[in-house]
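S1.2 Input.
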Amino acid sequence: MLPVLFHVGPVPVGSHNFFVTIGVLAATFLYFWEARRRDVLSEDIAVIALGTLLFGLIAARLSTGWKYVEVTGDSALNAWAYGGKSILGGLAGAYVGALLTKRWLGYREHTGDLFAPAVALGMAIGRVGCFLTEEPGTPTNLAWGVRLSPAAAARIPNCEGCVGGVPMHPSFLYEVAFHIVLFALVMWLRGRYRSSGSDLFKLYLLAYAVFRFGVEFVRGNDLWYAGLTRSQIFLLPAIVLLASYFVRRHTRAATTRA
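S1.3 Output.
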């Protein structure tokens, strides 16, 4: 809808890259601010942030690169340069990156709760860029459906469902609203919820996994198996594992109190 946000001289600044960059910067700032508030700011904390960002970027690219090659027949190098990015792939890669970096450093403290508000804020900002440049969603009769002009629909790549004048779900705005609410909730829970040091982040992941599974039905992504998208298939085991963690934690707490 708006692939170029503005120009710096003759250089166009893409809407997607702009908001993703602002989201990453805001998340990084909040991560360090939270580390300082908790009095755990150190060189190790900075290295963990760097490892998390690096692995997240690589995984976000690699998780969609195969599809770019399959559709275009282009090289893997061009897939890295011009292919898309997957938020779910990036989150999974960032999580693995944090674990591996901590193991490499020998850092044994939990860091998940430092990331929880930062990731929620970064996602809320970054998804604005997705809304401005990607397929909004499936057709809808709801009053807030997004209508694209034929010219705007033509600017969105690989959007077979983009038909000028047909209202569509603003699925990315649903995500923006969700992450704003979740950011506020995580900030409110700090100090009120007895966490192991990573429970808030796992709570965020569980909430987002459930929400994303539901919003996939109005995203317009290709169905892959049993009427579900690839993202939904990926999310199912993640939801089970995260929900099981909180069930076990609640059971242990109940047993201890008894």
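S1.4 Remarks. The chain is about 65% helix and 5% strand.
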